[in-house]
Amino acid sequence: PGIFLSFIITIILTYLILHIFNSTDLLMQSKPRLYILFSGIFLIHIFGLYDDLRNVKAPLKLFFQILAAAIVTGGGYLIHSLTIPYLGTINLGLFAYPVTIIWIVGISNAINLIDGMDGLAGGICAFAALSMGIIALIQGQILIAVLCFAFFGSITGFLFYNYPPAKIFMGDSGSLFLGFSLSVFPLMGISKASAFGTLIVPITLLLIPIMDTAGAILRRIRQKRPIHSPDKEHIHHKLLDMGLSERQILSVIYGISFYLGVVSITSVVLPKEINVYLIMVVWIGSMLGYWFLSYIDAKRHLSQKEEE
């Protein structure tokens, strides 16, 4: 609840300060849609808090995640098209609604899944929020910039107490709120001026949890286990098995997140011809790195079984 409350309080204080200087139009030019946005955010946070207290079953979790995402999409926050480099742009039409819901629910769960170590999910989200805020400023999107910077400040304050050894923990109420918000902020206008469309920037910023979640889904399908079943084969588990400490793992992940942030900011500044190669190299390099890490971890487990 601490991250959520500090975010809301920051937004309210920002509004009051702007009101003093008669500049509230910077924040309230989309007032009705903001109410819808915060309704979805509030619902996902409250349900996450309930889940932390009662440990809700997976189908009910999914239902409320879809409901919160549907509220937001109903307010007009949509992925209207998908841009594929070299192939062109696909206009989604009515499919924009289910595609957007899948995107929001997917990112919400990706952050939730990677929240398995102190400081990990919060750090990734902090770098993503800061980068989105800078991109929004570059594009003149003041409202989105305010939201992203308030979001970044709230997470940073939390990380002071969540960094190993942690004194407080995030829980589903925090991780779902972070993932949900970071999936919706780009739909407010961030990256529309990007060479590749709406999703490329947030995908790049959140590449680590996205790869980790995709790997977990494929792994559980291959092992014929339920997708929502837990395991200890996430990225941080693999790095722990290699002998890295929690702080060393965070240094590695934070470094990669910082680099992905720089690449994302660059992608909305430099010419399209350069960005095509930059984004593709980063994506391919990240996927090869994840595959190599998984390969080393699998070989290590195999060697341990043979010794037994």
Give a quick set of tags describing it.
2 strands; mainly alpha; 73% helix; 13 helices; single chain; 308 residues
Compact summary:
By secondary structure, the chain is mostly helical. Helix content is 73%, strand content 3%.
Strand proportion, as a percent range, falls in under 5%
Report Rg.
19 Å
Number of beta-strand segments = 2
Choose one word for the global shape.
globular
Task: Tell me the series of helices and strands, N- to C-terminal.
Answer: HHHHEEHHHHHHHHH
Structural class: mainly alpha
Between the first and last Cα atoms, what is the distance in angstroms?
Answer: 45 Å
Describe this entry's structure for a reader:
It is a single chain. The chain is built from 13 helices and 2 strands, in the order ααααββααααααααα. The chain has 308 residues and is an all-alpha fold. It has a two-stranded antiparallel ribbon with strand order 1-2. Helix 3 runs antiparallel to helix 8 (171-184), helix 6 (120-138) packs parallel to helix 8 (171-184) and helix 10 packs across helix 13. The model is unreliable at 192-196 (pLDDT under 50).
Please render the helix and strand layout as text.
Blueprint: H1 2-20, H2 25-28, H3 31-54, H4 58-74, E1 81-84, E2 88-91, H5 96-114, H6 120-138, H7 142-162, H8 171-184, H9 200-205, H10 207-222, H11 235-241, H12 246-267, H13 272-307
Antiparallel strand pairs: 1-2
